[in-house]
């Protein structure tokens, strides 16, 4: 297996996708923000001073997906047709589970955009809650699904 972002002389380079066919590309990713039960209760009751944590985190995640090429040097700028960020409350694990979905018709995949969405949504939750809980952690960030392109469908 060869890394795609390394040229013949061993230098980092952007992959040339000009010869690839444009296909529907989709990706899903997830991450979990673990926190104190009291912090989770404040989020659920919308009682934090900074406002609606999940609404702000959703917008931050969507913006991150759209700006991925500005954040990760060798990512192609993409015209995303859909970005969604959803949350579920995990009371047993005292956590917020984050799920993203990205879609486009293009020549390269959207896995990094889906990961950027959950990453920045998670960091936004931490930023909005750090005054009451400094011990929050982000866990299990990963791509859970991708389709389109030559490698086909991946389910993780």
Automatic annotation (TrEMBL):
What is the superkingdom listed in this entry's lineage? Bacteria
The EC number of this protein is 4.6.1.17
- Pfam families linked to this entry: MoaC
Residues annotated as the enzyme's active site? 127
Q: Per its UniProt entry, what is the enzyme's top EC class, as one word?
A: lyase
Question: In what pathway does it function?
Answer: Cofactor biosynthesis; molybdopterin biosynthesis
Q: Does the keyword Lyase apply?
A: yes
Q: Does the keyword Lyase apply?
A: yes
Membrane-spanning regions, if any? none
Q: Which residues form the Molybdopterin cofactor biosynthesis C (MoaC) domain?
A: 14-149
Question: Per UniProt, which keywords does this protein have?
Answer: Lyase, Molybdenum cofactor biosynthesis
Instruction: Note the NCBIfam families from the entry.
Output: moaC, PRK09364.1
Q: Could you describe the subunit structure of this protein?
A: Homohexamer; trimer of dimers.
What task does this protein carry out? Catalyzes the conversion of (8S)-3',8-cyclo-7,8-dihydroguanosine 5'-triphosphate to cyclic pyranopterin monophosphate (cPMP).
Quote the protein name from its UniProt record.
Answer: Cyclic pyranopterin monophosphate synthase
Organism lineage string:
Bacteria, Pseudomonadati, Pseudomonadota, Gammaproteobacteria, Alteromonadales
């Amino acid at each position: 297996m060869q890394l795609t972002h390394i040229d013949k002389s061993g230098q980092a380079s952007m992959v040339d996708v000009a010869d690839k066919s444009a296909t529907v590309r989709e990706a899903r990713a997830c991450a979990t923000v673990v926190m104190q039960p009291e912090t989770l209760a404040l989020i659920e009751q919308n009682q934090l001073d900074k406002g609606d944590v999940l609404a702000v985190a959703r917008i931050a995640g969507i913006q991150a997906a759209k700006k991925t090429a500005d954040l990760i040097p060798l990512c192609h700028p993409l015209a995303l047709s859909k970005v969604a960020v959803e949350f579920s409350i995990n009371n047993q694990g005292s956590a917020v589970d984050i799920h993203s979905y990205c879609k486009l018709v293009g020549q390269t995949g959207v896995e990094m955009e889906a990961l950027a969405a959950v990453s920045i949504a998670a960091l936004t939750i931490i930023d909005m809650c750090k005054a009451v809980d400094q011990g929050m952690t982000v866990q299990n960030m990963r791509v859970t699904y991708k389709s389109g392109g030559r490698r086909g469908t991946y389910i993780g």
